[in-house]
Structures are given as C-alpha cells and as structure tokens.
Design goal:
The chain is built from 17 helices and two strands. By secondary structure, the chain is mostly helical. The longest helix has 30 residues.
C-alpha cells in the first residue's frame, strides 16, 4: 500500500535530480563535532554525569539527518554572494541551525510520545533506559521526559553560542539574529497549534492544518533559512529585496510541500526507511492536512472509521465527543484508516498540492536575480526535499 502510493506515477511526474555535492554536509558535521567536543569537555569538568548528559546530547545532534536547514541557508547566501567567497566565516551560523533543529525534534518527540527517531530510540526513551540500567529511584519514564526537555533547552542555548562564533560584522549579526529570532518564534507558535489541534479535532480544517505547516515546518525548514542565508551576505546589496521576495515565495511553497510529504510519510512511509513507526500520525490523531482532507472527502461510513481520538473513541460528526476507549487504536485499525484515506482521494489531492507548490517555487527562483549555481541547486532541492522516502 505504502509503496504503491509513494512510488506511483503521480510522484514520478517530476524527475528527481541529485543535490549538488560541495562538501557542505561534511563541513557542517565537522563544525558541529568540534563545537560539541569543547562543550562536552566544559561540562565534564564540572561533573562526570554532566559529561555523559552532554555526550548523549551530542549523539542526538550527530545522529544523521538531511541537514536541509544549513543547506537552504547556504544556497540562500550563495544566491547573493556568488561562488568565490569562502564559506568558513559563516559555517558556525549554518551549523547552528542544526542545533536549533535538534531542540525542536527532541521536544516534538516528547510531546508526541514517539519511540523512535531516525531508526533509533528518541531522547526521552534513551534517558529512561539509562535510568533503568542505573537502578535509579523514581519513575524512569518521567526521568526520561525531564532529561529530554533539558537536552532540547541545551541545544537551543548551544545554537546561540555557535551562531555567535560566525565571523560577521555587528550590523550583519543584528540582521541575522532578527531572522533567527523570528524563525524560533514561528517554530514555537506552529508547534503549539500542532498540539492544540490534537485536542480540538472537531474545530480543525485543511486551512488550519496548512497554517500549522506554514509556521511549524515551512518557516524553519526552508523560508527562514533561505532568508537567514541572505542576511549572512551582509548589508543591503543591489536587488536584495527582489531576492528576499523570491525566497519568501519559494520558501513558503517548498516548506508547505515538505510538510505535505511528511503527512504522507507519517501514514504510508516504510518504517525501515523513515525510522519511525508506520501510522504514527493516525495513532496520535494528529490533524494533518491529509487527514483533514480525507474527512472532508469521506462518505459517512468512511468518516465514522476515520474520526477516532488517540484513545480510540469515535468522535461524532458534530464533535460532541464520546466515551473514550481503554486502548489505543490497534495496528489493524490504523491500517484500515490508511486504506480509507487513500480511497477518499485525499492522497491524490495532497500529491497534486505538492506538485503545484513545487511548480510555484521553481517559477519564483527561475525569475530571481541570483547566481546561477544557487538557482540550479534550489531547483534541485525543490524536488528532492519534497519527493523523498524519509
């Protein structure tokens, strides 16, 4: 089922091209590793337990991932600055976005109660396991949750520290910080709306789900990193406003498409590839655009099977509530809901929405007054970031 949907002809309509290989990922990884090594040494000197805590935090940061945020920021910078400027002075700023990303992921996993991330135990699960292995007093799961929250907090502080190491003028740093701060506020705002949606499913809609996507994902994954990169280029240059406007259109479109792709993967993705359990969004009752659209298109009989709370209780069409069941939806129920969603035509609609946004983004970047290498890279990224298996 998942492969049929994710690899069908509609998802192959746009040819996939590789992201240009320029060593950026290795440079970002190296910057992070060097920075985190010094942070671990500082905390280790205070107390060995803090050193172990910092090492677990480092492992979460360096556990892989697409490194999309530094990549978009890099090409946002190159689009203005060109190919000749060395990247070293801005590498700390690019790498800082990965620390911010880890903060968001760790907290998101706590809020969702997720067991795995990138095929490995999530932060709160790791710390709970450490608690049990050490025969600690108290509730291991509570300890895990508390420690994971602190990891997220620490990564956000580390992001600020690493950003401050970029070789920028004071004026440029102020401009970069303004974009960075806005990105953080929008991420928190989008996350709150995401959590709120799970408590008010009857009041949610496709439009509201897209507002969440715009703030929680589009903002800090694509749009703001591009503008962050533009700010790294320094004081206002010729045609900077035109470039900023193009990045705004491109970033919002690809950011939304990225989230819509995530919505599909959250239901139909292969756990071996995604690193997360299949049907996680259905298990938690997350009101994604995919689920909201499916409910909108469903027949009454289909709607009855789709409207479940995370505890498994049916939500009447009038949202008046119901008696919660004792258990969460079974794997069979989740698989059936996934089938119904496809039967409603919601998957095809979401795929069409992704294609439309990719076309919109490519058109915007094609007309932007940026350097050709950046234009080519961002065109490739528009496709690879939104047509992916994980």
């Amino acid at each position: 089922m998942a492969n049929d949907i994710l690899e069908g002809s509609s998802r192959c309509a746009i040819p996939c091209q590789p992201i240009p290989s320029d060593g950026l990922t290795n440079a970002v990884e190296g910057t992070l590793a060097e920075f985190l090594s010094s942070q671990i040494a500082t905390l280790d000197a205070v107390d060995p337990a803090l050193g172990r805590f910092a090492r677990t935090s480092r492992d979460l940061v360096l556990a892989g991932g697409k490194r999309l945020r530094p990549t978009f920021a890099y090409w946002g910078w190159r689009g203005m600055i060109g190919a000749r400027e060395p990247v070293d002075p801005v590498l700390p700023a690019l790498a800082a976005l990965e620390l911010m990303h880890t903060f968001a992921l760790v907290h998101d996993d706590v809020m969702d109660g997720s067991a795995t991330r990138r095929g490995r135990p999530t932060a709160h699960r790791r710390f709970a396991t450490q608690h049990r292995a050490g025969d600690g007093l108290g509730d291991a799961d509570q300890f895990g949750t508390t420690a994971a929250i602190l990891v997220g907090d620490l990564c956000l502080v580390w992001a600020d520290q690493l950003l401050a190491q970029a070789a920028l003028t004071t004026a440029t740093l102020f401009s970069v910080r303004a974009c960075y701060d806005r990105m953080r506020v929008e991420t928190v705002a989008g996350q709150y709306l995401d959590v709120l949606g799970e408590t008010q499913p009857g009041e949610w809609s496709v439009d509201r789900a897209m507002v969440v996507a715009r703030h929680k994902t589009a903002s800090y994954t694509v749009q703001r990193p591009l503008q962050f990169g533009l700010a790294l280029a320094g004081p206002i240059r010729s045609r900077a406003q035109e470039i900023n406007d193009a990045y705004q259109v491109y970033g919002q479109a690809i950011g939304e498409a990225f989230q819509l792709c995530d919505d599909l993967l959250g239901v139909y993705g292969d756990p071996v590839v995604t690193g997360k359990p299949a049907g996680d969004d259905l298990r938690t009752g997350k009101p994604t655009a995919l689920l909201m659209l499916a409910r909108q298109l469903a027949t009454p009989a289909q709607l009855a099977e789709l409207t479940h709370t995370p505890a498994g209780a049916v939500i009447p069409a009038d949202s008046s509530g119901g008696s919660p069941a004792a258990d969460s939806p079974t794997p069979e129920q989740i698989a059936r809901q996934a089938e119904i969603i496809a039967e409603t035509g919601a998957v095809a609609r979401i795929e069409a929405m992704i294609r439309h946004r990719v076309d919109q983004a490519v058109s915007a970047i094609r007309a932007a007054p940026i350097h050709d290498a950046a234009r080519l890279a961002l065109t490739d990224l528009a496709i690879t970031a939104t047509h992916r298996p994980a």
